[in-house]
Amino acid sequence: MKICCIGAGYVGGPTMAVIAFKAPDIQVTVVDMNAVRIAEWNSDTLPIYEPGLDEVVKQARGRNLFFSTDVKGAIAAADIIFVSVNTPTKTYGVGSGRAADLRFIESVARTIAEVATTPKIIVEKSTIPVKTAETIQNILAANTLGVTFQVLSNPEFLAEGTAVQDLFNPDRVLIGGERTPEGEQAVATLAGVYARWVPRERILTTNLWSSELSKLVANAFLAQRISSINAISALCEATGADVDEVANAIGKDSRIGPKFLKASVGFGGSCFQKDILNLSYLCESFGLPEVSAYWAGVVKMNDYQKQRFSAKIVRSLFNTVADKRIAVLGFAFKKDTDDTRESAAINVVRDLLAEQANVVVYDPKVTAEEINLDVLGKGHANPRLTVATSAVEASRGAHAIAIVTEWDEFKTLDYAKIFEGMHKPAFIFDGRNILDLAKLRAIGFRAFGIGK
Length: 452
Ligand code: UDX
Ligand code: ADP
Prior knowledge:
single chain, alpha/beta, six-stranded parallel sheet, 17 helices, 14 strands, binds adenosine-5'-diphosphate
């Protein structure tokens, strides 16, 4: 069996590496039109950072895992084609700012229709609006060679930072297909790939639309929990309750459960915001404005939380941060990844720059180029934004420290020493609630958490 995956990104790369690792008899080729990215996948420095990924790639690469820019060749040879290209939020035209931009998906479908000469199973891996499979099917039907295609939906539920672990041991694998004999056959073929290492009872099969929708809904529910606890964090700050204590107390109710209740500066990542906006737009398109508004509220609350954090910094520093040095620790949207897409840090840094602060960012995995690009945009510079090579360096001479990503190394810094090198009064804003505020206050810091 030959598998090809179009798109060597955060989803396609790790997913295919794990399939190749677990199924040595299947030849897996990951293709991308981005030649630099492919060269990186073929090098010792992979284009993305994921704990455990290096070992998996090293084992399988060259054996049955290949990275290539020959998109057409890999499509022609494959039995199963995973489509794992990016589906950003549209920035133009109808649905701008909310709907998913499907231009990459469509272009892939056209390429497949053009080069396929044998039957293929096409697997949607990218998150896409419900009924995209239909679009793909329609484009494929234009194939003039009479080739048959089965389109399946197989959404990815891996979280960055734990991708390899999630792929090795998924809560479930979801496969949606057409309820026809050919569709069922295709679903069984794909289920057979995962069954090499995933227990059968964790492989769920549904119709196409249920599978497509489940991905959006899973992310919407997860994000909703964060926005819910973040909403409560504002109330905690107003009343003197402690949000971690509230989360712990409610999480003990087995109906609620303890996970995804960590109050924070706001969720980021490539999925949550995009998928909720997409879901909300979908509801509106189907004439359900109340449902649409309900889900849009989750994103609104997240925007409020990010803005509330920077506003608190400014207010606490006597309503002005102009020319003050603020150390921002962490820039990735969460720990153990170098991904910065939709990271709350981007908003926080922009807000502080708008207040004319001198912002010094440090992140263990994110490059200075990426930080500048994300905050200022291509080709722009701002002398007030600098990047340090350590947390200690960033904090030296600072008036305040803002922790935006929960990197483990920030938990064990020598804060007493850092305090000595800072302007007084020295402030610390823990946007992730990873530090002991009482200890920081004992050192002399004016310390604030989220919802405390
Ligand atoms: C998410 C989903 O978890 C995953 O199933 C889906 O496939 C893709 O989207 P990811 O974005 O990689 O994964 O990371 P996740 O761990 O879900 O965190 C998302 C954001 O929420 C991060 O910014 C994180 O810091 C934040 N978060 C998470 C909180 O603020 N509080 C929490 O309790 C949990
Ligand atoms: P994700 O987080 O969903 O994996 P990424 O942006 O990290 O998203 O990766 C998507 C990849 O898909 C990019 O590397 C991009 O170059 C690739 N891609 C997009 N369109 C095509 C296409 N038509 N052919 C080949 N690769 C594509």
